[in-house]
Amino acid sequence: MAAGTIRYWAAAKAAAGTAQEPYAAATLKEALDGVRERHPGELTRVLRRCSFLIDGDPVGTRDHETVRLAEGGTVEVLPPFAGG
User: Fold this and answer.
1) Torsion on CA atoms 76, 54, 1, 36, rounded to nearest 10
2) Helix residue spans in 1-84 (DSSP H)
3) Tens-digit pLDDT profile for residues 57-79
4) pTM
5) Is there a contact between 62 and 26 (Cβ–Cβ < 8 Å)?
6) Fewer CB atoms < 10 Å away: N or C end of the chain?
7) What does DSSP say about strands 20-25 and 51-54: parallel, antiparallel, or unpaired?
8) In this structure, are residues 75 and 9 in contact, taking their beta carbons and an 8 Å threshold?
9) Quick check: 38 and 20 in contact, CB under 8 A?
């Protein structure tokens, strides 16, 4: 299990009520399961539309269960952005 930071942007930040929080998880799936437990409701709906960066690298279409998280890493939660 790794410990790191989840950063929320735009609508995800508003729904979470915070800009960031810690994670303790081995995979992106585990980290997001923890987020859903801590923030039921709107954030869970927003996450369905989000893309994710792990330490700056896009997750893309990879299964979240296969995306390993590193100690001290960062998960960026990016909802769709309008415009530019």
Assistant:
1) 40
2) 10-16, 28-38, 42-47
3) 999 999 999 999 999 999 999 99
4) 0.93
5) no
6) C
7) unpaired
8) no
9) no
pLDDT, mean of residues 3-13: 97
Write the DSSP assignment of 7-20 as a string of letters.
EE-HHHHHHHTSSE
3-state secondary structure of 34: helix
Spatial strand order of the sheet with 2-8 comes to 20-25, 2-8, 74-78, 51-54, 57-58
Average pLDDT over residues 20-34: 98
CB 10 within 8 A of CB 81: yes
From the number of C-beta atoms within 10 Å of its C-beta (0-12, 13-18, 19+), residue 70 rates as exposed
The answer to whether residue 80 scores a pLDDT higher than 90 is no
